[in-house]
Design a protein that fits this description.
The complex is a heterodimer of chains A (457) and B (194). With 457 residues, chain A is an alpha/beta fold. Chain A contains 23 helices and 10 strands. In chain A, the strands form 2 sheets. In chain A, strands 1-10-7-4-2-3 form a 6-stranded parallel sheet, with helices on both faces. In chain A, strands 8-5-6-9 form a 4-stranded mixed sheet. In chain A, helix 3 crosses helix 12, helix 9 packs across helix 10 and helix 16 packs across helix 19. The longest helix of chain A has 24 residues. Chain B has a single domain, classed as NagB/RpiA/CoA transferase-like (Rossmann fold). Classes of the chains: A alpha/beta (457), B alpha/beta (194).
Chain lengths: 457, 194
């Protein structure tokens, strides 16, 4: 069956060197994650605890949000609520206007991608500078992230070097050494940190009991973004809330181990209020999350903490790349979140799963990703998106399997197919024949062998 | 109805079954010698250096020993000879150009090298903008894992900020090549005191 994903994947697969590198890069992260998990005897207990804490928090979210709001306000932060992307973008613009902001330095936030914030800000004349190195590279190249944690890993050092030369931040033309290029970006971003009027961050966790916003990075860019400008805006999805520090201990031990195979990120920063003489705004964004809570089959996607482990392990993601998916979040969690956001646009990603269930086994919050994909597939016909050829074949199989006489006759003549020329058995209409060899039918069926007493126990 | 109330209302309406908070009393990994484990993690995976400081050592000499080429030192730690002080600079930008920042660490965690830094200075930029960072950690404050660490972190109410730092700033965003010194400190040395 051809969907936008399969078509894009076919194109991606044409460059086998690129596919191999992509596959090996993410598999190596999976291997590092395994090493980290095996170091902790309590690993499975941590995963179970994370799953249960999330289930508890999500099903008591209104109370926890009220508690969070109360404590954050007490600490001096200003809390806003946004029901959708439009309202969120407006709130950000209002704050920036009030402070006459010209330049924003931003640390990585998938929520701002979800709401298309950058486009909105640029339209209103704001200079937006992404400060995570990968995100900055993509911003300069006018590309979207292809992974939620390692957004630019598919770009080669030569491409980065040439891009930096174009932007005049790499003086040594032809120098593509990653250390040198990282240094160039460091100086370039330093200049931007010094002159920005506002720092924007996401939030990996919000802690209800204390009102803390927790942001984890390796580069320290969220901290640079919030240590120099006096204005700090946090954008956080409702589901990022957890109850207290006891819960934080559990999630801290899981996040980096699952995401990048490290025992921690370099920085785990707790923002509990504004800087002296500054302002801190926290925007809590719904944008469909409260509706997902009401979806009996898929509400547990809200347990996701965006670590990216499901992508790293997914054999389809590793071999087809992030851009093959129609939703901005790729991989197993992206397939599910895309369906929840807009099924007519994102059902194209449903074939991007072999149901190997590897994602379920690595997810730190035990989201049942592959079972959810299976359930979406069952609903495709009702949505009018079932593949007509598969439907026709299923109908045929139903007729066959429901009539024993017809089945036995068909089986008897099946070996004839062994002698048919390939252009008949591998015709284009049969999508399953593409990339697969036709199986050889046995001369005698199991049924016949059994009857003749040829099957020995 | 305000957006806030609408969201809270929807969340309450859409919950079908509720779940209890789990018991987190399961057994967690503890090191027999957390100090030894902390030294090991800090100097390997975290990518930092570590110097043990004896009670009679001159700390300013030790700073010079750790970073002999440093020209500008910033700190508000009593007893440190500093060129700039994060409490008295007019703006955070004034700390740019710091070769070595010296700060105090709180609870430190053996399993991952995380050191809690409670903001006790006007400009927290010192923790990130300095080319290299020295963090003073007492052996008495070292615990095994993050569950224990979170029981001990403290917040200065005046500043409302704290961060766990484990080693120097790093990135692997270009072809997965590990590079130290992305946006924040390029190097980190732990001064381990008794």
């Amino acid at each position: 069956m051809s969907t936008k994903h399969t078509i894009a994947a076919e194109k991606f697969l044409q460059n086998s060197e690129k596919v191999t590198r992509h596959d090996q890069t993410f598999w190596s992260v999976r291997v590092k994650r395994d090493a980290q998990s095996q170091e902790l005897p309590e690993w499975e207990e941590l995963r179970e605890a994370a799953s249960q804490i999330k289930k508890h928090t999500i099903t008591h979210l209104a109370e926890y949000l009220e508690k969070f709001e109360k404590n954050a306000t007490k600490n001096g932060a200003i809390v806003h609520w946004a029901k959708d992307a439009d309202e969120y973008n407006e709130i950000v613009m209002d704050i920036l206007h009030k402070h006459q902001v010209k330049k924003v330095v931003k640390s990585k936030s998938m929520l701002t991608e979800e709401c298309h914030l950058n486009d909105h800000l640029i339209k209103h004349g704001i200079d937006v500078v992404e400060t995570d190195l990968g995100e900055r590279i993509l911003q300069m190249m006018h590309l979207a992230p292809s992974h939620i944690v390692m957004p630019a890993i598919h770009i080669t050092r030569e491409q980065v070097g040439r891009c930096f030369e174009d932007y005049k931040i790499s003086p040594e033309v032809g120098n593509y050494d990653p250390t040198y290029l990282t240094r160039c970006a460091r100086y370039h971003l330093r200049d931007n940190f010094m002159t920005a009027d506002c720092g924007m961050t996401g939030g990996n966790f919000g802690i209800a009991e204390t009102g803390d916003i927790v942001v984890c990075t390796n580069e320290g860019n969220a901290d640079m973004s919030t240590s120099i400008p006096k204005l700090h805006i946090v954008s956080m999805g409702l589901e990022k809330l957890i109850p207290d520090y006891k819960a934080m201990g559990v999630f801290h031990r899981l996040l980096a181990r699952c995401g990048t195979g490290q025992s921690t990120t370099v920085y785990t920063s707790h923002f509990r209020g504004p800087r002296p003489g500054g302002e801190m705004h926290i925007i809590l964004v719904d944008n469909g999350r409260s509706k997902i809570l009401g979806n009996e089959e898929h509400w547990q996607t809200l347990k996701c903490m965006r670590c990216g482990a499901c992508m790293n392990t997914c054999p389809v993601y590793r071999r087809t790349g992030g851009y093959s998916y129609t939703y901005f979040i790729p991989g197993p969690i992206g397939i599910n979140l895309g369906m929840l956001k807009d099924p007519d646009e994102n059902y194209h990603n449903l074939p991007a799963c072999s149901l190997c269930c590897s994602c379920d086994n690595v997810c730190p919050a035990k989201v049942d990703l592959s079972s959810q994909i299976y359930r979406w597939r069952q609903g495709l016909d009702g949505m009018g998106h079932a593949d007509p050829m598969k439907k026709f074949m299923s109908k045929g199989m139903q007729v066959l399997f429901e009539s024993p006489g017809l089945y036995t006759t068909a089986l008897k003549f099946a070996p004839i197919a062994n002698h048919l020329p390939k252009f008949i058995t591998e015709i284009k209409l049969n999508g399953w024949a593409q990339g697969r060899e036709m199986p050889v039918f046995a001369k005698q069926s199991f049924h016949e062998l059994w009857k003749k007493g040829k099957v020995k126990a | 109805m305000s957006t806030r109330d609408e969201i809270l209302d929807n969340l309450r309406k859409n919950v079908r079954e509720t779940y209890d908070m789990p018991d987190l009393g399961f057994k967690k990994r503890i090191f027999e010698d957390p100090v030894k484990a902390f030294i090991e993690t800090t100097t390997t995976t975290a990518g930092a250096k570590l110097m043990e400081i004896k009670p009679n050592d001159d700390i300013n000499e030790k700073i010079h020993e750790a970073y002999p080429d440093a020209k500008i030192i910033s700190s508000n730690v009593p007893g440190i000879k500093a060129d700039r002080n994060p409490d008295t600079v007019a703006e955070a930008q004034d700390l740019d150009g710091t070769d070595v920042g010296v700060i105090m660490g709180g609870v430190a965690c053996a399993e991952n090298g995380c050191i809690w830094i409670e903001q006790t200075m006007k400009e927290k930029a010192i923790c990130f903008i300095s080319e290299c960072l020295i963090v003073i950690v007492s052996k008495k404050n070292i615990v095994s894992n993050m569950h224990e660490a979170y029981e001990h972190i403290q917040f200065n109410e005046k500043y409302n900020f704290g961060t766990f730092i484990s080693g120097p700033s790093k990135t692997a965003d270009i072809e997965q090549s590990l590079v130290y010194g992305a946006q924040a400190a390029r190097g980190l040395t732990v001064f381990l005191t008794e």
